Amino acid sequence: MRKQRGFAMRTLARVAVFAALIAVLGLPGSLNVFGNAVPITLQTMGVMLAGAVLGSWRAALAVVVLLVLVAAGLPLLAGGRGGLGVFTGPSAGYLVGWVAGAAVTGWLVERGGRDPGLVRLIVACLVGGVGVIYLFGIPVQALVTGISLRRAAWLSLVFLPGDVIKAVLASLVARGTQRAYPDAVPAVHQERLRSGGGR
């Protein structure tokens, strides 16, 4: 029982660290370009990193923790945004997409086993951290702003170059971390938890 409690505390600590990391990546602020109501931020890179290092459900939980704090009024989103109002604005779908995107990124990395490799990490970050987030974000942006789905999709193209760069950077950071600390590979961490040797 004590050992299980210890594992739970370590899991919560990892989740808290990545929730904080995503928040910290919002400190540089946000940028609105070409009249887009949804800002460009670095926080999606934190979402990708969470998925690549924590795995599916822990990464999703880290994002949920962050969003709960935001809903409670803490200004943890880029530009110092916080409060329930952000969940009714043009970015709302992207925020919800962070949860699904982190989970999908983590799930794809987990499928890579004990050594997911850089290519898998990049693909996972692109699919989960870009594709899935856009899948949630674009329709909600269109609905909230009253523009067509096609127009919202065209506006989202401004995010794509930066998001691809963030996916590559997140993958490089995750790969370097996993080489230095094998426990940062989701599959390895899960094996250690199952065997009673988790940290």
How would you sum up this structure, described in words?
It is found in: Cell membrane. Its main location: membrane. Belongs to the BioY family. It holds the Pfam family BioY. It comes from Nonomuraea composti. The chain is mainly α and 199 residues long. The chain has eight helices and no strands. Helix 2 runs antiparallel to helix 3 and helix 2 runs parallel beside helix 7. It is globular and about 50 Å long. The relative contact order is 0.14. The model has no long low-confidence stretch (mean pLDDT 91).
Strand content: under 5%
Low confidence ranges? none
Residues in helices, as a percent range: 55-70%
Shape: globular
What is the element string, with H for helices and E for strands? HHHHHHHH
The number of helical segments is 8
Alpha-carbon Rg, integer: 17 Å
What oligomeric assembly is this protein in? single chain
* Mean pLDDT over all positions: 91
Class of secondary structure makeup: mainly alpha
Straight-line N-to-C gap? 16 Å
Number of distinct beta strands: 0
Sheet with the most strands?
A: none
Q: Which helices and strands occur, and which strands form pairs?
A:
Layout: H1 2-24, H2 43-54, H3 56-71, H4 92-110, H5 117-145, H6 149-156, H7 160-180, H8 186-195
Helix pairs in contact: 1-2, 1-3, 2-3, 2-4, 2-5, 2-7, 3-4, 4-5, 5-6, 5-7
Output the keywords.
mainly alpha, 8 helices, transport, 199 residues
